[in-house]
Amino acid sequence: MTDTLLETAPLAIDDAAADRIFRHARSTSLWTTDEVTDARLEAAWDLAKLGPTAMNTLPLRLLVVRSPEAKQRLSAHMAEGNKPKVEAAPVSLVLAADPAFHEHLDELFPVYPGIREQLAPATDVREQMARKNALLQAGYLIVALRAVGLATGPMDGMDADGIDGEFFADSGWKSLLVVNVGIADGEGSSHPRGKRLGFEQVAEIL
Amino acid sequence: MTDTLLETAPLAIDDAAADRIFRHARSTSLWTTDEVTDARLEAAWDLAKLGPTAMNTLPLRLLVVRSPEAKQRLSAHMAEGNKPKVEAAPVSLVLAADPAFHEHLDELFPVYPGIREQLAPATDVREQMARKNALLQAGYLIVALRAVGLATGPMDGMDADGIDGEFFADSGWKSLLVVNVGIADGEGSSHPRGKRLGFEQVAEIL
């Protein structure tokens, strides 16, 4: 097969953008003292929210942990090696899935009237849908945070149930990841990039 | 808090790139006859593979379904409304999680020697890690496909176990989503965009 488009224009975005969101972007754990404002987080959300989810469910929720007191509460539930990372970051975002996403579906997915009522009793289905689609959205959000000029440090090493008990006892949100956010402080702020699997290692063609 | 950076430069990528990957990008189900080459899919993978995963596990795998015969095999396991979408798309990608990702960790995560052996007997843990991180990567990939000029049509309505039995009996991959890929055929190729939840609806600030 020929792909003349690919020969003339391998990317549909400019190199600076591809560098910013993927090629030069690195997970970070050393930060400048620059503040991360809610306005900047909102700018990232305003991009990420546009990414597709099943039935426009949009189940991702964000706990923005900025105050020293909230940082301490979060840090208590992180794996040992991640505690200092939470404490050092300008902001830590707890990315969570909201199993009560169905309450918004009259507005978000009006083409399917009654879906809110249909999902209401299906607690397990809702939690599964929430986790799946919120993780997709977490991928969009990491890209979007980079697109507004922030670096990220995503972390999985944490006691998710502990975080849920600490912060989400009322809302029922389910924590998925914690992502530190800020401006990277120079070259030493990330490890050398690990190897990646090539297309031929991950793809099967039929 | 002030954010002078935000006032002068709300985005760190140019508007054309933000439009391409988020603001003008739409889920699509009408396609031009342009071919989607493996080279173009590889260009997307070469961006998406750079996104972060826990311990650099990179568990996302891609089944590239292009031949009419393979399309028929896939279509048989899709929800009724998605069958014609699979048949119409130039390429359908089955995005899957590989629970055997640990076999690559000596190469991908050499800073933790022994992690491959440690994970080998932990089948359930591996499957959970694979699903979680592959979904994050699915988010990166949808953005990356757009970044190389393709439109996407992600679909969740399918018999995942049926697909796994049909295609992944040997590899053990677990299907997560099917994403149709191609060049969108004009304005009528997508529905009007659904509403989105604003930052104030999804974020709690501490």
TrEMBL record, chains A, B:
Residues 26-182 form the Nitroreductase domain. InterPro entries: Nitroreductase, Nitroreductase-like, Nitroreductase_HadB/RutE. Gene3D superfamilies: NADH Oxidase. It comes from the Bacteria. SUPFAM superfamilies: FMN-dependent nitroreductase-like. Pfam families: Nitroreductase. NCBIfam families: PRK05365.1. This is Malonic semialdehyde reductase. It comes from Isoptericola chiayiensis.
